[in-house]
Amino acid sequence: MPEITRSEKGSLWLGALRSCISRYDPSVDTSGLEFFEFPSFVGCSVDGFAHVLIGSLASADIGPYLAFAAGRKAAALNIYLSPATLNALPSQVLPEVAGVLGLQSEGFVISASVLQAGKSGLSPVVHGSKLQSVIQDEKARQEFLRYRGAEQALGLAHESGCQTLFIHDQMIATYLGLEVARSTNAHGEIRLEIGVGRNDRMAKSWLGGAASQEEQLRETIETVKRFRLGASQFHPLARLSVARWMRLVLEVNPGLIAAERVTPIELARAGSWQGISVWSLKGNIEPMDEYGLMYRGFNPSFEDDNLSFAIATQGLDNDYVVGVSDGIDIGAVAKLYEVTKSVRAQGRKIEGSILVMQERNRISSIERMVDMASFDLRSATLSPTWKNLI
Questions:
Q1: pLDDT value at residue 165
Q2: How confident is the model at residue 300 (pLDDT cuts 50, 70, 90)?
Q3: Any idea what the Cα angle at residue 182 is, between residues 256 and 163, rounded to 5°?
Q4: What are phi and psi of 137, to 5 degrees?
């Protein structure tokens, strides 16, 4: 992790970090320590012990702080959290976020502690996560089919050549990994909205005219196919949800990761914080003006943190949790560990985990995080021609 700047003694966050270190260990003389300041946190190390104070937190992800500790060759790490860390989010969210960071810390060989800083001192957090891993098997499909109208929506998606994903009472239809339709549940009845993203779904529902849903879905798929498989590599439709596209390639070609079958996993998170993805802390607050009211009834499209997940099966029952990373993500290993824990909590026997990246994104800092993992983890890459394998 590159250093941004060395912090001066007058920094507000630097002073707060000094206070946290002194509370944790009064014997440490902080006056001679070297501090480093990053866009979202400040840190220092002393006697093989790294200390980090988070200034702002946009994602529940311990990766950057572990990377800092590893860069300072520290054997242990303290992470300090204060209510100000979460900016505009409610204060009751903090214990849940801290618990997720604490749980993620269990997945690494560096001994890491997450401490909440308050007026009364420092308090260790209770590790925990409310992440729900929905394995896309027959059970998930049958749960969705319990609702009125679900079978018709599913039939339309399959007839159009879409892949269907289920999160409890919701179905998301994708083509080449990109969402082209999603269901809504109104009073126990399933209806299908067509379009790539909320704006497109809203426009088609208002301006669709006499076009049937079959025609709308066919046109949407053709548009996605043109930009996904054409030469417009910088068009948004070619760049969105690439991790799910990569996962689809693995489903068709499981041998790429020495598997016989790849089954997708979709994620949901219960709890006080409702972001636009399961790790996001950006919040999901709709504007209350006339433009915000237009969106009422149209759910926002999910963001996937440039990650997707699956179970790879070898033999009869040798299952591995797979994390597919689209970009350069220092926190991918921590998130994969959390998903692996979530799957194991369902009683599923998991042999290990696999982190899959594009070949161009296999950089030393991510490989270092893989090497630091305390759980059974290996990495694999997809060649630059992976799109041609579908």
A1: 96
A2: low
A3: 25
A4: -115, -170
| The one-letter amino acid at 187 | H
**Do 349 and 83 contact (CB within 8 A), yes or no?**
no
pLDDT in tens, 86-126: 876 777 888 999 999 999 999 999 999 999 998 888 999 99
Interacting residues of 128 by C-beta distance below 8 A, sequence separation 6+: 96, 99, 100, 102, 103
- Structure tokens, 60: 């529940």
Instruction: Please compute the mean of the pLDDT values over residues 173-177 and round it to a whole number.
Output: 96
Asked if residue 164 lies in contact with residue 198, where contact means CB atoms within 8 angstroms, the answer is no
CA–CA separation, 257 and 356 (whole Å) = 8
Strand 178-186 with 170-175, pairing: antiparallel
Distances (CA, A) of 75 to 50, 57, 110: 8, 24, 6
Contact 389, 253 (CB under 8 A): yes
- Report the sign of the C-alpha dihedral through residues 62, 361, 371, 341, in that order: positive
| pLDDT, the chain, mean | 89
Q: How far apart are the first and last CA of the chain?
A: 35
- By three-state DSSP, how is residue 345 classified? helix
Rg (the chain; Cα; Å): 23
> What is the pLDDT, as a whole number, of residue 369?
96
pLDDT of the residue at 331: 94
CA distance linking residue 239 with residue 246, whole number of Å: 12
Percent of the chain with pLDDT over 90: 70
CA–CA distances in Å: residue 28 to residues 35, 45, 46, 50: 14, 11, 8, 12
Among 78, 64, 59, residue whose Cα is nearest residue 2: 64
* Other Cβ atoms closer than 10 A to 125: 22
From the list 157, 158, 161, 176, the residue with the least C-alpha distance to 226 is 176
Give, as one character, the DSSP assignment of residue 282: S
C-alpha to C-alpha distance for 353 and 336, rounded to whole angstroms:
8
Q: Model-level pTM greater than 0.85?
A: yes
Q: CB 326: neighbour CB atoms within 10 A?
A: 24
> How is residue 285 annotated by DSSP?
P
- What are the structure tokens assigned to 6, written together? 């060395």
